[in-house]
Specification:
The chain has 147 residues and is an alpha/beta fold. Helices cover 40% and strands 18% of the residues. The chain has 6 helices and 5 strands. Strands 2-1-3-4-5 form a 5-stranded parallel sheet, with helices on both faces. The N and C termini lie close together (11 Å).
C-alpha cells in the first residue's frame, strides 16, 4: 500500500529549516507519494512560489485539494508559520491522520493550539532531534501501515 503524504513546512514564515524539510521529504518517499515535495526545494524562498503567475488563490485551492487527497499529514512545526497552522486546522476538520514534528533544540516554543490538540490517536506530536527523525518516521509509518 502506497500512502499519499502531505508534508507541511514553513515557506513565507521563513525558510531556515529547508534542509531538514528536504531530508524528511526524502525519507517520506519510502512510504508513499509526497504531494508537496516543493516544500523541500532550497530554491523556494520566503516569497513562496511564483504567486504572480498563479496567484495566491490558485496555491490555496491546489493545496486544499492535495490535503483532501492525502492519507496522512506530516507537519514540521518548529518554524512558526500561519500557513502550516492553517493546514493543520483544515486537516483536523477533515479528520486526517496528522503527525507534527517539533525540534526541541529550537529557540521557539510550540503553540499551545498545536501542543494542546494532541490526542495520541489521529493527532500526534513528536519532539525530536535531527539525529532521530528517521527513526520517529519509521515507527510512525509502521503503525500506519499496520492499521
Amino acid at each position: 500500500m502506497s500512502l499519499r503524504i502531505y508534508f507541511c513546512g514553513s515557506i513565507r514564515g521563513g525558510r531556515q529549516d529547508v534542509e531538514i524539510y528536504s531530508r524528511i521529504i526524502g525519507y517520506l518517499r519510502k512510504f508513499g507519494k509526497v504531494l508537496t515535495e516543493h516544500i523541500g526545494n532550497p530554491m523556494l524562498n520566503e516569497k513562496g512560489e511564483d504567486a504572480v503567475k498563479t496567484g495566491d488563490k490558485y496555491i490555496h485551492d491546489r493545496d486544499l485539494e492535495w490535503l483532501q487527497e492525502a492519507d496522512v499529514i506530516v507537519a514540521e512545526v518548529t518554524q512558526p508559520s500561519l500557513g502550516v497552522g492553517y493546514e493543520i486546522g483544515r486537516a483536523m476538520a477533515m479528520n486526517k491522520k496528522i503527525l507534527c514534528l517539533f525540534r526541541t533544540s529550537a529557540k521557539h516554543v510550540l503553540s499551545a493550539m498545536i501542543r494542546g490538540a494532541e490526542n495520541g490517536t489521529n493527532f500526534q506530536i513528536n519532539d525530536y532531534s535531527e539525529e532521530e527523525v528517521e527513526t520517529i518516521l519509521q515507527q510512525y509509518f509502521e503503525k500506519q501501515l499496520q492499521a
